[in-house]
Amino acid sequence: MQFPRIGVLGGGQLGKMLALAAGPAHLPIDLMDASEDFPAAPYAHRFVTGNFKDYDDVYNFGKTVDVLTIEIEHVNTEALHQLVKEGVTVHPSPRALDIIKDKGLQKQFYAEHGIPSSDFVLYPDADALKAAVASGERSLPFVQKSRTAGYDGRGVSVIKTAEDLEDKLLPGPCVAEDLVAIDKELAVIAARNEKGEVRTFPAVEMIFNPVANLVEFLSCPAKVSQVVEEQADQLARRVIEAYDLCGLLAVELFLTKTGEILVNEVAPRPHNSGHHTIESCYTSQYDQHLRAILNWPLGSTQAKTPAVMVNLLGAEGHTGPAYYQGLEDCLALPGVNIHLYGKVMTKPFRKMGHVTVLGDSVEAAMATARQVQDSISVIAIEGS
């Protein structure tokens, strides 16, 4: 069997884990990003230094591979459209990427397709949004999201008071969404190949850091009823079908206090909410993404064991060369699987790694995960 050459735009931790997943089958996988110091570089068959936001870099890299995919959505899609015209297989499609990487277009897409999501209004800038509040058109509280470039908690601001209007509004074109009364935040990762086969992973429950707006813990299975689990699963399938997307689609959901399930936003790639699948499911999200973009049969998404993932975030007040304090203590704990991303420099709330804890129950795994979070600190080396 002749394996196609896979190209990945982005060389961060998701690219690293994709390359590791390609290893057992020895799939040829090339990556492109700004520096060979990035986490994925040592694991690629070929690493190309380039800017995934630059047309020429993306186009020239894409011409050297058979199948092109991403680990971050903020890439130059003009080049991707041209590559598709010239016969390169690109997943996810640049058409879907153009919608997803603009949160305003994403919200309009859900409205047009009857997909449940929170009510919203688009504004050209912060001044227009402030004027809408002053006129009574928009009431407090609400959530403001930058239309583009938001990532890892950035580009989102919760506006509750008049003071927030002065201090917390984000510049540029934005979306203002109703502040939803959330009971739980869930995610379902769906996978789809060109044949139209769809598989979904079990829903996970996410707990966010209130300061950084980043996931601190996620647990699987989510503590929801079977009815909610099935509704979340069906909604994720509906969304990936609506986008006509091949590869992975992480669908982030709100379960409201009245029992509604709303789509928050999506990511068309491997996602933080699926890291636990490496150890806890028969097929990891990374294996599944490769299967999907190659149009191979999708693997079983069945969970083998309950799991909790904890993100290892850079400690507040620490910027500099990274040091992992307390790591050895956690290696002695049962069910603990440590993943360090290989980032040389730490800074506050930067994702530096994750730990997946397996257990006989979510409660047992969570207790160990909290031990891990209390034990490991990602700090900067003093005097550096």
Automatic annotation (TrEMBL):
ATP binds at residues 103, 145, 177-180, 185, 264-265. InterPro entries: ATP-grasp (IPR011761), ATP-grasp_carboxylate-amine (IPR003135), ATP_grasp_subdomain_1 (IPR013815), PreATP-grasp_dom_sf (IPR016185), PurK (IPR005875), PurK_C (IPR040686), PurT/PurK_preATP-grasp (IPR054350), Rudment_hybrid_motif (IPR011054). Residues 107-294 form the ATP-grasp domain. The keyword Signal does not apply. It is an enzyme of class 6 (ligase). GO terms for biological process: 'de novo' IMP biosynthetic process. Keywords: ATP-binding, Decarboxylase, Ligase, Lyase, Nucleotide-binding, Purine biosynthesis. GO terms for molecular function: 5-(carboxyamino)imidazole ribonucleotide synthase activity; ATP binding; metal ion binding; phosphoribosylaminoimidazole carboxylase activity. It catalyses: 5-amino-1-(5-phospho-beta-D-ribosyl)imidazole + hydrogencarbonate + ATP = 5-carboxyamino-1-(5-phospho-D-ribosyl)imidazole + ADP + phosphate + 2 H(+). SUPFAM superfamilies: Glutathione synthetase ATP-binding domain-like, PreATP-grasp domain, Rudiment single hybrid motif. Pathway: Purine metabolism; IMP biosynthesis via de novo pathway; 5-amino-1-(5-phospho-D-ribosyl)imidazole-4-carboxylate from 5-amino-1-(5-phospho-D-ribosyl)imidazole (N5-CAIR route): step 1/2. Its EC number is 6.3.4.18. One of its GO terms (cellular component) is cytosol. Homodimer. Belongs to the PurK/PurT family. Catalyzes the ATP-dependent conversion of 5-aminoimidazole ribonucleotide (AIR) and HCO(3)- to N5-carboxyaminoimidazole ribonucleotide (N5-CAIR). This is N5-carboxyaminoimidazole ribonucleotide synthase. It comes from Flavilitoribacter nigricans (strain ATCC 23147 / DSM 23189 / NBRC 102662 / NCIMB 1420 / SS-2) (Lewinella nigricans). The gene is purK.
